Fold:
Amino acid sequence: MNRKALFFDIDGTLFSEITRQVPQSAVLALKKTRQRGNLVFINTGRTYCQTEGIRSEVELDGLLCGCGTYITVGDKILYDRRVSAERALRLKEDIIRFGLDGVLEGVEGCYFNNGTSRMPVVEQMIRLLKAAGAYIPLGWDDNSYEITKFCVVADGESRKEEFFATLKDEFEVIDRGGDFYECIPAGHSKATAIEAILKRYGIAKEDAWVFGDSMNDLSMFQYSLNSVLMGKHDSGLEPYATFTTKTVEADGIAYALETLGML
Structure:
């Protein structure tokens, strides 16, 4: 069997958003497939600072973070793309000016505007990122930090279309539903990150497998010839799936790897 490169989303794929844990069945399955010589990578929209928990639980060959903006293999950083300080300053000003809110995500930490947000989802993100150790209490009036991507939330008071117009061709906007939008520097995606890894290891595209559940996995599902869809998923991924497994909570990762002969 040719060596495979396996790329896993985190939330809703490896990590249960219900139990807030990685099932032990998935931990063991990834260990077993690596013992067979396959390579295991995280491919996530989370920035590096948000992966500490998964790094401590799962044996990995590398991390592809921030939708392709930051790539590591072992202890080596292969790629690290930051938003310029000038552009980050204008982003913060425009998010506020057009009545949105959100989170600025960097390699070292995640940053929120000062004060209590009128948007409950932003307050929820603050709680989750504090629990994950990724929250840094530097407001948007502080320009000492760097970011790689950002997410914005809109409501009835927001002028979101006007805000998105300011992004022009600089950022790709992914609609995650519920007026929540993930914004990534143009030319970066989970697919470009996979390409970089396949080139580094000399692995053929047909030996790459991707595992995901939500629309920020779309680029890697469109790119890959082998796409495993979780039991609970966004319907927009269905046209690109080559195999549908069970949910995270029903040991979907272990089931897929066993069924597909990778254990």
